[in-house]
Fold this protein.
Amino acid sequence: MATRTDPKKDVVIIGLGWTGAIMGMELANEGLEILALERGEDRSTVPDFQYPNIFDELKYAVRYDLMQKPVNSTLTVRHNTAETALPYRHLGSFLPGDGVGGAGVHWNGQNWRPQAVEYRLRSYVEETFGADIIPEGMQLQDWGVTAEELEPHMTKFESVAGIAGKAGNINGEIQEGGNPFEAPRSAEYPMPPLKNTWDSELFADAARNMGYHPFPRPAANASIQYVNDYGMQLGPCNYCGYCERFGCNNYSKSSPQVCIIDALKRKPNFSYRTRSEVLKIEKAADGKTATGVTYFDDKTGEEVFQPADLVLVCAYSL
Ligand SMILES: Cc1cc2nc3c(=O)[nH]c(=O)nc-3n(C[C@H](O)[C@H](O)[C@H](O)COP(=O)(O)OP(=O)(O)OC[C@H]3O[C@@H](n4cnc5c(N)ncnc54)[C@H](O)[C@@H]3O)c2cc1C
Ligand code: SF4
């Protein structure tokens, strides 16, 4: 039961990772009053990802300092419907984020676009191999949107995040050195590809000589100095290798804070609260319309009702 009710906002965002930051920026630009609630701590490149502390492998890679703690909140898993789902006690390959930036702090930054056919996989398999090949109950589906429809949004994200890569297909024209099988894109990547290592060069040469089309993987790791449309700056990657499980100390790995959040913080119609875990989305009497959220304010120990016209669940998407 909430012990405090705060003034109403137009929008409340649950979770401040990539999704929350992107939605926050888009809606703040529309002039809406926005509050983001993040369960974890506040985090910025300085002081949280500073050299040399961020290279502490025991703290970050082994003890998962930047991630959700199963002791506080975990996932349950079962192998079939007859089993009772049991909680994860130790995270494995899925390492959900906890704190401002979410998983976007400790991700790698590989930034592939799906191939056109992947958006209509069920249709493609039926057309190519016949409907009978899909076993009953197999959850193979078309997405309901096409590569063409999503293309402008992919391009926008690549521009905000500053993706390094080499286009393989611009408006239907195959580009030398890129992935010839990618769906048509409207523009080149905002940054040139990262440098290859010597062994990758040898591999690429060998593949090319065999008639294949090696291409650099698209990366959210800056290859050059870059400033995005929000005025956020990235510096060239120094190839330290501490991407996954660590925050980048060099403003080179695209993250919500490096690419969006610092610009978002300057907007008077955006605010955010940390250590604020949303417990429930409250609904109107119709049982459908969200009226706000109840969250636990860890700083005061209170349960708070935050009314809002729009509730965006940006809390977990891995
Ligand atoms: C180790 C790792 C490597 C990855 N590498 C890649 C890669 O190379 N390429 C790629 O495309 N993707 C990669 N991903 C996936 C990608 O990082 C995520 O899909 C993406 O960051 C998700 O962003 P999000 O904002 O949707 O969710 P999240 O980043 O999970 O953010 C959700 C936020 O919500 C908060 N939250 C959760 N519950 C509540 C609550 N009840 N109340 C308040 N706040 C809450 C969390 O603390 C978190 O900060 C990787 C992920 C991980 C973990
Ligand atoms: S400097 Fe480059 S390799 Fe090192 S963490 Fe940042 S993006 Fe990753």
Q: What stands out?
A: The CA atoms of residues 91 and 143 lie 29 Å apart. Residues 110-219 form one domain. The longest helix spans residues 147-161.
